[in-house]
Design brief:
Elements (H helix, E strand, L loop, with lengths): L1 H17 L15 H7 L3 H10 L1 H4 L14 H15 L10 H16 L6 H4 L9 H24 L1
Helix pairs in contact: 6-8
């Protein structure tokens, strides 16, 4: 029994010490997404959806919840943000090639249509990110239109 008590105290001490260490936050600004918004010209309802469901993990600006101050949760969140930006980073949109933009828009509307995005782990704590059927339809429609525009540009070249 003593060993469990010692192990518990050791674990508690390690958790307390870990609170003094945290990953670097993704606290840029949303100015970097302006080129994406200007180029793709989402309607206002889609722009709001992008802001509330996409930009936290797919841009240089994350609005962190209160529980991000707790280690190891903050490392888990950082992992999600880094993974999201690895797949699609709206802040780097202007550096993407035309072919990559077309492909990313294809992935965007497919992921939303299939319910893969936003992630369930994100919607658990961000109720406003739970998309309605109408919101999904709006994002998919806009995404297909933008993808089609990019396809036309690719075919013209």
């Amino acid at each position: 029994m003593k060993i469990f008590k010692k192990a518990g105290y050791t674990l508690l001490l390690l958790l307390l010490i870990a609170q003094f260490f945290s990953p670097e936050k993704n606290e840029g600004n949303l100015i970097a997404v302006v080129p994406f918004l200007n180029e793709t010209n989402p309607p206002e309802n889609v722009k709001i959806i992008l802001e509330t469901t996409c930009f936290d993990c797919h841009s240089n600006k994350t609005n962190y919840p209160w529980y991000n101050s707790i280690t190891p949760v903050n490392y888990w969140l950082e992992s999600h943000v880094n993974d999201g930006k690895k797949h699609l980073d709206f802040s780097k949109w202007s550096s993407y090639s035309l072919k990559r933009k077309e492909h990313k828009m294809d992935e965007l509307h497919e992921e939303v249509a299939e319910g893969e995005m936003p992630l369930k782990s994100y919607t658990w704590t961000h109720a406003d990110a739970n998309l309605t059927a109408a919101q999904i339809a709006a994002v998919v429609s806009w995404g297909k239109k933008v993808q089609g525009d990019y396809q036309q540009q690719l075919n013209a070249n």
